[in-house]
């Protein structure tokens, strides 16, 4: 191991066409001023959703990432397992993208990059945004989990008592980034005070039986 030249902290960010484009947008904003090198790939449908839900265009999204790729560029660096990364996070992940990744028959750079992450046994986190779920959706999620992917739907944590939608989004993304050991200070952690120290003032919330 060459400790003098450690591998760069690269994280692939995928945004697919499901509702919830704010998750991908905010993720890039949170990581922009960190040492994490973000590599962004966005599906065609995601650009439509992005504009509809946030009013932003591709030209406004691009500067938030360190490196951007066309979703049709199957020769991009992130399409190769030899390109070292921490893993990939798709926020949000549509059912179509999820299904393509599970099948291994990938037609875009976004799904090809995810397939590469799986074959290299790196961390793949899918913020699947769909409800309700039918049996085939659940079967596909199970297949992906068996392959090593982490299914992390963007479910709000009401115990954190978010005062705004922005706080809710940040907390959700902070919990997902925990899976990559990335700490940005946006998570209100159970049993901890705001300074990150354990809550020692009496019993912890939720410690009393309701039976």
Automatic annotation (TrEMBL):
<comment type="function">
    <text>Flavin prenyltransferase that catalyzes the synthesis of the prenylated FMN cofactor (prenyl-FMN) for 4-hydroxy-3-polyprenylbenzoic acid decarboxylase UbiD. The prenyltransferase is metal-independent and links a dimethylallyl moiety from dimethylallyl monophosphate (DMAP) to the flavin N5 and C6 atoms of FMN.</text>
</comment>
<feature type="binding site">
    <location>
        <begin position="17"/>
        <end position="19"/>
    </location>
    <ligand>
        <name>FMN</name>
    </ligand>
</feature>
<dbReference type="GO" id="GO:0106141">
    <property type="term" value="F:flavin prenyltransferase activity"/>
</dbReference>
<keyword id="KW-0808">Transferase</keyword>
<feature type="binding site">
    <location>
        <position position="175"/>
    </location>
    <ligand>
        <name>dimethylallyl phosphate</name>
    </ligand>
</feature>
<dbReference type="GO" id="GO:0016831">
    <property type="term" value="F:carboxy-lyase activity"/>
</dbReference>
<protein>
    <recommendedName>
        <fullName>Flavin prenyltransferase UbiX</fullName>
        <ecNumber>2.5.1.129</ecNumber>
    </recommendedName>
</protein>
<dbReference type="InterPro" id="IPR036551">
    <property type="entry name" value="Flavin_trans-like"/>
</dbReference>
<keyword id="KW-0288">FMN</keyword>
<feature type="binding site">
    <location>
        <position position="129"/>
    </location>
    <ligand>
        <name>FMN</name>
    </ligand>
</feature>
<feature type="domain" description="Flavoprotein">
    <location>
        <begin position="10"/>
        <end position="179"/>
    </location>
</feature>
<feature type="binding site">
    <location>
        <position position="43"/>
    </location>
    <ligand>
        <name>FMN</name>
    </ligand>
</feature>
<dbReference type="Pfam" id="PF02441">
    <property type="entry name" value="Flavoprotein"/>
</dbReference>
<comment type="similarity">
    <text>Belongs to the UbiX/PAD1 family.</text>
</comment>
<feature type="binding site">
    <location>
        <position position="159"/>
    </location>
    <ligand>
        <name>dimethylallyl phosphate</name>
    </ligand>
</feature>
<feature type="binding site">
    <location>
        <begin position="94"/>
        <end position="97"/>
    </location>
    <ligand>
        <name>FMN</name>
    </ligand>
</feature>
<dbReference type="InterPro" id="IPR003382">
    <property type="entry name" value="Flavoprotein"/>
</dbReference>
<dbReference type="InterPro" id="IPR004507">
    <property type="entry name" value="UbiX-like"/>
</dbReference>
<keyword id="KW-0285">Flavoprotein</keyword>
<keyword id="KW-0637">Prenyltransferase</keyword>
């Amino acid at each position: 191991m060459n400790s003098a030249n450690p591998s760069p902290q690269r994280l692939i960010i995928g945004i697919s066409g499901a509702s919830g484009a704010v998750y991908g947008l905010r993720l890039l904003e949170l990581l922009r001023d960190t040492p994490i090198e973000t590599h962004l790939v966005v599906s065609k449908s995601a650009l439509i959703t992005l504009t509809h839900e946030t009013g932003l265009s591709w030209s406004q999204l691009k500067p938030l990432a360190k490196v951007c790729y066309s979703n049709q560029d199957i020769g991009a660096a992130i399409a190769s397992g030899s390109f070292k990364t921490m893993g990939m996070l798709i926020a949000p992940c549509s059912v179509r993208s999820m299904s393509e990744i599970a099948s291994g028959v990938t037609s875009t750079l976004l799904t090809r990059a995810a397939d590469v992450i799986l074959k290299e046994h790196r961390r793949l986190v899918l913020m699947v945004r769909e409800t309700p779920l039918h049996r085939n959706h659940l079967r596909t999620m199970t297949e992906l989990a068996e392959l090593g992917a982490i299914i992390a739907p963007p479910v709000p944590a009401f115990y954190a008592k978010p005062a705004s939608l922005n706080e809710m989004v940040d907390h959700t993304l902070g919990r997902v980034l925990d899976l990559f050991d990335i700490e940005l200070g946006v998570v209100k952690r159970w049993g901890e005070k705001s300074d990150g120290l354990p809550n020692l003032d009496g019993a912890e919330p939720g410690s009393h039986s309701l039976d």
